């Protein structure tokens, strides 16, 4: 499948991308994961991105497009891809359209994940992420906790609260989402590519998206 996941921070994009990928071998691609790995490894990209990310601001479009063009050209994307956290601005959406035309591939659709604001806030403040750059598994201290000692169940590295999960950074991320990313809903609607999905229970949302893919 070739799907874009759209939705506010905390809408469930990361979890749903990983579950959908298990279904047909499409690769889940998270710009947030790519950027966090770069920050951890201290690469040039990481150095440029870190400050924007810690305060919850967007990383400049030109950097993101460079990363995504290289990523989407990798051979593993031929099976399909699930984009999580990209595009995030109208500029990125237009550039993605050009890039996909160049690569001669078409999106199936954009899945807009919707959840009430109080649920989103609760998810963001209770989220824990595995600090191993190659894993980045997502947990929730209430309904999907890591091991008792706080270690990741998959790779046993420690889990942590991300630097952008302070109350201040969360408020900023939500504000930026409404300003810069929410307009993509209208953009994809005009393109005839928008489908809305309620995102309360991940497994239910995943089966709805699978149904839409096979329809
Ligand atoms: P979220 O849970 O907010 O969706 P992500 O893991 O997708 O978090 O992204 C974390 C941070 O990485 C963002 O706040 C932003 O600084 C940066 N980032 C990720 N994707 C993009 C993008 N497509 N454009 C600009 N910045 C991005
Ligand atoms: Zn892990």
Ligand types: adenosine-5'-diphosphate, zinc ion
Shape descriptor reads: globular
DSSP E strands, number: 8
Instruction: Tell me what the CATH architecture is.
Output: 3-Layer(aba) Sandwich
Instruction: Kindly identify the CATH topology.
Output: Rossmann fold
Radius of gyration: 16 Å
Order of helices and strands: EHEHHHEHEHEEEHHEH
The domain count comes to 1
Seen as an oligomer or otherwise, the chain set is: single chain
C-alpha end-to-end distance: 12 Å
Widest sheet: strand order? 2-3-1-4-8
Low-confidence stretches: none
Q: How much strand content do the residues show?
A: 15-25%
Instruction: State the CATH class.
Output: Alpha Beta
CATH homologous superfamily caption: P-loop containing nucleotide triphosphate hydrolases
Q: Whole-number average pLDDT?
A: 94
Keyword list:
215 residues, alpha/beta, 9 helices, globular, three-stranded antiparallel beta sheet, binds adenosine-5'-diphosphate, binds zinc ion, five-stranded parallel beta sheet, Rossmann fold
How are the elements arranged and paired?
Elements: E1 2-6, H1 13-24, E2 27-30, H2 31-41, H3 44-55, H4 61-72, E3 81-84, H5 90-102, E4 109-114, H6 117-126, E5 127-130, E6 138-140, E7 159-160, H7 167-181, H8 183-190, E8 194-198, H9 202-214
Parallel strand pairs: 1-3, 1-4, 2-3, 4-8
Antiparallel strand pairs: 5-6, 5-7
Helix pairs in contact: 1-9, 2-3, 4-5
Zinc ion (ZN) binds at residues 130, 132, 135, 137, 152, 154-155, 157.
């Amino acid at each position: 499948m070739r799907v874009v996941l759209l939705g506010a921070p905390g809408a469930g994009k990361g979890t749903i991308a990983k579950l959908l990928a298990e279904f047909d071998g499409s690769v889940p691609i998270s710009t947030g994961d790519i950027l966090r790995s770069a920050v951890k490894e201290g690469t040039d990209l990481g150095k440029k991105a870190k400050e924007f990310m810690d305060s919850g601001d967007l990383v400049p479009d030109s950097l993101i497009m460079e990363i995504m063009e290289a990523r989407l050209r990798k051979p593993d994307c031929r099976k399909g891809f699930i984009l999580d956290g990209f595009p995030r601005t109208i500029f990125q959406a237009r550039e993605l359209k050009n890039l996909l035309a160049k690569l001669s591939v078409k999106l199936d659709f954009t899945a807009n994940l919707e959840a009430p604001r109080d649920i989103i806030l609760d998810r963001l403040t209770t989220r824990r992420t595995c600090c191993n750059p190659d894993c980045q598994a997502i947990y929730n201290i209430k309904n999907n906790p890591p091991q008792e000692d706080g270690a990741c169940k998959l790779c046993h590295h420690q889990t942590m609260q991300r630097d952008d999960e302070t109350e201040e950074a969360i408020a900023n991320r939500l504000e930026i989402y409404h300003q810069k990313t929410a307009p993509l809903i209208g953009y994809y609607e005009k393109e005839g590519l928008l489908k809305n999905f309620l995102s309360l229970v991940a497994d239910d949302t995943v089966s709805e998206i699978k149904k839409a893919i096979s329809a």
